[in-house]
Amino acid sequence: MSILRVAISVAVLILSATPVHGEANANKIIEILDAGGQNATITTFWLSGVENGTSWVNATLFQKGQKRLYCVPSTLSLTHDQTARIFRDFVKANPIYGSAPAGMVMLHAMVSTFPCE
Hints:
Elements: H1 3-16, H2 26-35, H3 37-63, H4 80-93, H5 102-113
Helix pairs in contact: 2-3, 2-4, 3-4, 3-5, 4-5
């Protein structure tokens, strides 16, 4: 089974499940970002941290000769604000993800924004 197929299967399971931990959903994250202030700044850094973690997954997949989940151009270094914008734009374009856990949505946003050729 391909990694993409596994990732999609896991995403479907996660979208159909109710999270049992305290991770905010995507709509809550956007609400915090829209409110501005210190919480928005902290949340922007949190989103960047989530993206950083998934980038390490990509690096590991690449190192093992497997297909990466998403492919950010090597000439691009994402800022915290760009990462938050990618998240926000993805949820706006895909409102079904609004109630999903924000970390999972960040991964989907990156896959959608930077598909591998």
